[in-house]
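U., I forgot to send this yesterday:
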Amino acid sequence: MTIRFPTAMGINPEDELAVVEELSARQKTEAGGYFWIQAAKIFMDGVLEGGTAYLEDPYLHQPGNGELLWEPQRYNEMCAALNKAGVQIHVHSIGDAATRITLDGFAYARQKNGWRDARNMITHLQLVHPEDIARFADVGVIAVPQPDWFVVDTYYYQAVDYVGQERADQQYPSFFDQGVKVASASDYPLSWPPNPMLAIEIGVTRTVPEGSDICVAPDYTTPLNPAEKVTVEEMITSFTINGAYAIFREDELGSLEVGKKADFIVLSQNILQIDPRQIHNTAVLLTYFEWQKVYRSEDFSQ
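Result:
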């Protein structure tokens, strides 16, 4: 393989705590290569467009607050068992109520087992209560957003219908200014193409690049939640060293330093110096993996 592939094993609400032993055994079996089981994957709720994200306040288009997939105390006990076994936890959470319950479980595990460097993760984070953002840093949780979604498109207008203008305009907070570790992701294969150059630009501009077809009915000029725009440097950090940190590999991956793996790419332009709205036009010319050339573009002449 010429790529590292950390993955996660699914844990379901009906699973008994004994599944933790099974996961730990599988981790040992897969350890030592470029593919390994990094974490336990838990789904706390559904998705906003399906009316199944679990919200603090009710939906406007249907009764209720959505679907919570885990009974909170059962989830707390599963978190504690995974934490005690030294297993990292990766939770899908879309709604603000789901994220609060997810954080509660991580805090419960710490209270029950004592502190350890768990680096648990919550991914998607479409709606988050402002008071809970600071809890990420307090509990040591890594935020794993997908910047490709930070745009005004069909899904945005659907969110306006489902949860109202105010909540729709607060989607996808950035987390950076609260001291939270942010490790950006692609949400592949739901987001296409899984291009970090495109995602970096969207994180900076909160708009769809002009002419891009990554979403349906895009608004190319109106940013989504513009107060949450971040810098190019922050976005690069979220895709490099913070990604390495999220898998406990920051001592060997994620930056170009003596003693680390020689993983790097050569880009067609310096994304720190150009207009951020042109970052999506950046191409990868050369890719090295552990100091071995694994890709060279036909456009790269040097």
